[in-house]
Amino acid sequence: MPLLIIRGVSVDQVKLISSTLVQELADLCECGTDNFTLEIVQSTYVFAGEEVQGYPLIEVKWFERGQEMQDQFAAIITRHIHSLGIPDVEVAFSTFLESAYYLNGHSFASM
Questions:
Q1: Which residue of 2, 8, 36, 104 has the lowest C-beta tally within 10 Å?
Q2: CA distances to 3, 10, 49, 50 from 57, in Å
Q3: For the segment 23-69, what is each residue's pLDDT rounded down to a tens digit?
Q4: What whole-number distance in Å separates Cα of residue 19 and Cα of residue 40?
């Protein structure tokens, strides 16, 4: 945790930035890089009867860490996506409650 679900960016592009991206995010969150998961969703996008390139959207699923850290987290992701020559990217956060997230049947609220 955190989980980054990446749309509109190719697997090869994510591979190029994955190590430095995760390291910077781990440094910001003060946790190990093994806490992060990158999932690349490969979808087909259609507009006006034609197959088109998908719009880059990175959804971050995580526990609440405050607005300042969220802003910094989004800025790091945005900078790395821009480094691929992609001019626009959206980052959206979904926050889990520790009481509603379980590992091996145990709520994170009780850990």
A1: 104
A2: 13, 12, 22, 20
A3: 999 999 999 999 999 999 998 999 999 999 889 999 999 999 999 99
A4: 15
CA–CA gap between residue 84 and residue 6 (Å, rounded): 14
Tell me the residue range of the domain where 90 lies: 3-110
For position 104, which CATH number holds? 3.30.429.10
Question: Within 13 Å and on the Cβ side, how many CA atoms surround 7?
Answer: 12
Q: How far apart are CA 39 and CA 36, in angstroms?
A: 10
The amino acid present at 58, given as its one-letter code, is I
Q: What is the 3-state secondary structure (H, E, C) of the chain?
A: CCEEEEECCCHHHHHHHHHHHHHHHHHHHCCCHHHCEEEEECCCEEECCEEECCCCEEEEEEECCCHHHHHHHHHHHHHHHHCCCCCCCEEEEEEECHHHCEECCEEHHHC
9 class by beta-carbon count within 10 Å (0-12 exposed, 13-18 middle, 19+ buried): buried
